[in-house]
UniProtKB/TrEMBL annotation:
Annotated protein name in UniProt: Kynurenine formamidase
InterPro entries in the cross-refs: AB_hydrolase_3, AB_hydrolase_fold, GDXG_lipolytic_enzyme
Organism name: Stylophora pistillata
Gene: Afmid
GO molecular function terms noted in the UniProt entry: arylformamidase activity
Origin superkingdom: Eukaryota
Location of the Alpha/beta hydrolase fold-3 domain: 117-226
Length: 345
């Protein structure tokens, strides 16, 4: 080969290699852009209409902590009840009784068929605590329901599978304590995801559970975890795309039917991320495809955090919608599922 031909060869090889580098750089840039987009769309604080993102989370934690201290002082409650392994605890709040000492007795074991609402807090499975959210119990106890505000071990110490197992244990515990009660699950954000996982859990060894759960209120939840794998949220969770799909009710329900049906209310905030809204809509669609009676409520004027803060006021629209659901579903469950009123909520 002459020198000229050799030079040409070298040039061709070099430009091929450069193209390869440019292509990988472009792909790397595209990946980076996509990951930035996902991090923004999966940061609820960035979509609030009240204050800067860092400020809104601090404000939320402070105001909720204050409300909850007042609730714990003023209500009849059993605090720090161990319900599962690894020191998982819940706080149980009772409706006021004429003689406050009897409140637990009235509602326990042999007790009443009063509804019990079990609340699971949010915080992307790595923040938050049951102690911040005692106050959400107030509208329920004022209406005669028992409320259980559930804590669970968080990431990175706990895996998502462990958290799902803890919420299953919390449901079993409540069902044993209040065997005649209608159970309702209410979860916010990551807590809504954990509640939704109950619908795809195996209850074959606890057949009374699917019978007992009458409704779920899923407030601004994430039902498909695959999009968060490349975001900061996953630093503590350590999910792969595969393990994320395995703990995603949206994805699981493409492969199996829910293990029970009950009335589901999926709630979205007006000032929320379009990704959360998309997930809520898609979750309602997949539930409907399984003949689950569910509806989507877009809550006006609120963001991811104020939708919960406002629950301190029992007249709040969300409190009222939840109570409407709890009051409407009075019928006993048949073997095949729940008899729910045709009109829905
Ligand atoms: N890092 C998140 C915080 C967050 O998502 C959050 C914080 C407190 C209570 C609920 C939350 N969201 C979902 O679990 C954000 O920037 O919005």
């Amino acid at each position: 080969m002459g020198n000229r031909a050799k030079d040409q060869d070298i040039q061709e090889e070099t430009s091929k290699a450069l193209c390869g580098v440019c292509l990988s750089l472009n792909i790397a840039n595209m990946d980076e852009e996509k990951n930035e987009w996902l991090a923004q769309y999966y940061s609820p604080s960035k979509w609030n209409n009240r204050m800067d993102p860092g400020g809104v989370v601090d404000y939320h934690v402070n105001i909720c902590t204050g409300y909850s201290k007042t609730t714990r002082k003023s209500s009849h409650c059993e605090l720090s009840v161990c319900y599962g392994e690894k020191k998982a605890k819940m706080d149980i709040f009772y409706p006021a009784q004429e003689n406050d000492d009897t409140a637990e007795c009235v509602h326990e074991e042999s007790g009443s068929s009063a509804a019990v609402v079990l609340f699971v807090h949010g915080g992307y499975w790595q923040e938050g605590s049951r102690k911040i959210y005692s106050f959400v119990s107030e509208s329920w106890t004022k209406d005669g329901c028992v409320a259980a505000v559930v804590g669970y071990n968080l990431a990175p110490e706990a895996s998502l599978d462990q958290m799902v197992g803890e919420i299953q244990s919390a449901v079993k515990y409540i069902n044993t304590r209040f065997p005649k009660s209608r159970l309702f699950l209410c979860g916010h954000s990551a807590g809504a995801h954990l509640c939704a996982m109950m619908m795809v859990s195996d209850w074959s060894k606890d057949l009374s559970i699917p019978q007992a759960i009458h409704g779920m209120f899923l407030l601004s939840g994430v039902f498909d975890l695959v999009p968060i794998v490349s975001t900061y949220v996953n630093d503590a969770l350590k999910l792969t795309e595969e393990s994320a799909a395995q703990v995603s009710p949206q994805q699981i329900l493409t492969k199996m039917s829910p293990t029970f049906v009950c009335l589901i209310l999926v709630v979205m905030e007006e000032h929320g991320s379009p990704e959360f809204l998309r997930q809520a809509k898609e979750f309602v669609e997949i539930l409907k495809s399984h003949k689950v009676q569910c509806c989507l409520l877009e809550l006006p004027g609120v963001d991811h955090f104020s939708m919960i803060e406002n629950m301190v006021n029992s007249d709040d629209l969300l409190c009222q919608e939840i109570l409407k659901g709890v009051r409407n579903i009075t019928s006993a469950k048949s073997e095949k599922g729940v008899k729910v009123p045709d009109s829905g909520l």
